[in-house]
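Final report, section 2: Outcomes. Of the targets proposed, Phosphoethanolamine/phosphocholine phosphatase is the one most frequently requested by collaborating groups, and we therefore present its record in full.
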Amino acid sequence: RYLLVFDFDETIIEENSDESVVRTAPGQELPEHIRQTFRQGFYNEYMQRVLAYLGDQGVKMGDFKAVYENIPLSPGMQDLFQFLSKNHELFEIILISDANMFGVECRLRAAGVHSLFRKVFSNPSSFDKRGYFTLGPYHSHKCLDCPANMCKRKILTEYLAERAQEEVEFERVFYVGDGANDFCPSVALTAADVAFPRKGYPMHRMTQDMEKKQPGAFQATVIPWESAVEVARYLQEVLKK
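The predicted structure is given below as tokens.
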């Protein structure tokens, strides 16, 4: 069996879902005083303020749900999911996303693929008594390269260790992502594994930089993609061997 790990924003979907929810705001934009509170590495805290502002504007659960459900999937993603549905017994599939649980699950259900995923790891989110959409950090960690609320490498290594204790060993790990926070876990992959960075996105550039500066340090095979059909095609070849 193989483990297939997906990122969500700009990987499964074509947008950053945190930016998509701004469509629920008056005039579909945020006021300057909210935008100015953004600090690098503390995006989760920034989004907590954005959601509080949207709550103040009367944005309700149904409004968020409608936005999430209608975010377009990335090119070829539907084809990749069809391929995975047909070969479901060969892949264990998980999702690790710095978005939020409610948004991720809304979109996966709308696409009819929620059941493909054994587990979804994302920031906890819920609607409070006032009907405000609230967001929390996923965990704390000591990684210096990742945002304060989530290190995907920590999540992936803990998952692999937990599965090993349950006597589930994977022949290979495949990781499909796009962002800088997807680079961190992909560095932990072995020579048997494959990283699928979205072409021209930060994860792709970072794998290229590492290869230039420290040839051989990035162990996994790197297969950049523009359409997820390329990922499906690669996995199909793996199954033939």
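The beta strands are 2-6, 91-97, 117-122, 125-127, 133-135, 172-177, 194-197, 221-222.
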